[in-house]
Specification:
This protein is an alpha/beta fold and about 450 residues long. It contains 20 helices and 16 strands. Strands 2-1-5-4-3 form a five-stranded antiparallel beta sheet, with helices on both faces. It is elongated. The N and C termini lie far apart (about 125 Å). It binds adenosine-5'-triphosphate and magnesium ion. The site of magnesium ion has 3 residues, from helix 8.
């Protein structure tokens, strides 16, 4: 072909037609009066019509609603018109064809976006499930507590926290011992967040809450069709979910001895095999185990495997009970009350402080939390928690301040003590001015001079 052939009208026509016929967009050309002169194969595919039903026909008749006639009329280009015909969705650009300054027809360029739409819908739904999954994972696997948040005023707790900070970095397994409600789970979270595994998952498992027949498949997962009722495609175990993170085995003392043997094997081999599967998977998991039972006694009685105990006990941390760290009670109470309702500034009356200090808190922080939250609901607007706002069992406890040893004295001394306290509080409330004192005397139904006498005492 000679270069000049490009300007040969016949060649140009052939070239244009072969481009138009092979292009991936649908093309329709109509003449000045709106009669369809050309459609390409993609156009007929998109609109689902045969060329013979289009060619030579008046566009407005065969494609009702078409915009092309208006464009031919006005000479104004229109782009990005969205149209839907049955299942097909497409976008149309329409332009007039101008020759020697005159409009001689128009062209519609049609892009099928059904597939794009489908894909973007699928993407949208995938994104929304991913988001849901992520937030579930975050709430489940991203623990919120840090060790510094848990620090208290007591020497005992702070010693435990210091040890926990060391243990966190050591990456060895940890055994957390402590009475119920002392905050073992929170400390486990704090350790995870202070450890090099902080960006990995934190997977808590309550060994007491899962029936022992299910615990194995929960921990190790199972293969497709491992047993009747098994989920299709199998299931990941909590060990695999905790890969590169921390597995928190709570209430380990309740784990069945058979299960203890399986757990020991996994810890030794660092591999898990899903129930009903042959091949093993390598796992990298740090275990923090916790119990409120006397595990050493259980080992002695043969109720807990000694070898497993040693494996878990690479680091042992004891969380002290609340009655052994009473310095923490007041600040803990305030922080629990503030968490419960941050719009109110709660205070504890002196008597409540005394009672809290004397009480032995068998349920530890969990019990304190229940008591505080109950009291928060019972206080008046001023937010002061008084004895009468506490649950009845606390009001009647032998630790009630008026039953404590300092009140076991001659009645007149207790009355005097009470009177002094009352007057102090009233002076704070009404002020120490003459005006204030007159008000106090009126409330107490005594003369101002006898109020002065009492105050001088
Ligand atoms: N330092 C703390 N500050 C605020 N709340 C705390 C603190 N420590 C523990 N708690 C609260 O006390 C309750 C008991 O804590 P946690 O579940 O960690 O105790 P536990 O030692 O695991 O108890 P159990 O042995 O019964 O499982 C939880 O509601 C927890 O939020
Ligand atoms: Mg617990």
């Amino acid at each position: 072909m000679e270069p000049n052939d490009f300007f040969n009208p016949n060649f140009l026509k052939e070239l244009a037609l072969s481009v138009l016929n092979s292009i991936n967009d649908g093309i329709l050309i109509a003449d000045k009066v709106g009669i369809i002169q050309y459609v390409n194969p993609e156009y007929t595919r998109i609109v689902g019509m045969k060329p013979k039903d289009l060619l030579g026909k008046i566009l407005a008749d065969v494609r009702p609603g078409a915009i092309l006639p208006a464009v031919i009329e006005t000479g104004k280009t229109v782009s990005g018109v969205y149209r839907e015909v049955k299942e097909t969705k497409y976008v149309v650009d329409i332009a007039p064809i101008v020759h020697d300054g005159n409009i001689v027809g128009g062209v519609s360029i049609v892009k099928d976006i059904t597939e794009v739409k489908k894909l973007s819908k699928a993407l949208e739904s995938a994104q929304s499930s991913l988001q849901k999954l992520q937030s579930t994972m975050e709430s489940y696997f991203c623990p919120k507590y840090t060790l510094s948040q848990l620090k208290g005023d007591s020497e005992k707790l702070n010693r435990t926290i210091k040890l926990a900070e060391k243990a966190a970095l050591a990456d060895a397994n940890i055994l957390l011992l402590g009475e119920s409600g002392t905050g073992k789970e929170l400390i486990a979270q704090g350790i995870h967040n202070a450890s090099p595994r902080q960006h990995g998952p934190f997977v808590p498992v309550n060994c007491a809450a899962i029936p022992s027949v299910l615990l194995e498949s929960e921990l190790f997962g199972y293969a497709d069709g491992a047993f009747t009722g098994a989920r299709k495609g199998g299931k990941l175990g909590l060990f695999q979910l905790a890969h590169r993170g921390t597995l928190f085995l709570d209430e380990i003392g309740d784990m069945h001895v058979d299960m203890q043997a399986k757990l020991l094997r996994i810890i030794q081999e660092q591999k898990v095999r899903r129930v009903g599967e042959l091949n093993e998977q390598k796992i990298d998991v740090r275990i923090i185990a916790a119990t409120n039972q006397d595990i050493e006694a259980m080992v002695k009685r043969g109720r807990f495997r000694q070898d497993l105990y040693y494996r878990l006990n690479a680091f042992q941390l004891s969380v002290p009970p609340l009655r052994e760290r009473k310095e923490d009670i007041i600040n803990l109470s305030y922080s629990i009350a503030n968490d419960y309702d941050e719009t109110i500034t709660f205070t504890l009356s002196e008597e409540v402080k005394k009672l809290f200090y004397l009480f032995d808190w068998p349920g530890n922080i969990r019990e304190l939390k229940n008591v505080i939250e109950y009291a928060c609901n019972m206080t008046s607007q001023d937010g002061e928690i008084k004895i009468e706002h506490l649950p009845e069992r606390m009001q009647n406890s032998k630790y009630h301040p008026y039953l404590s040893s300092e009140y076991l004295q001659p009645l007149k001394d207790s009355v005097k003590q009470f009177e002094k306290k009352l007057l102090q509080n009233l002076l704070i409330k009404f002020g120490e001015t003459l005006e204030g004192k007159k008000k106090i005397a009126k409330i107490l139904k005594i003369s101002v001079s006898s109020l002065y006498r009492k105050l001088e005492d």
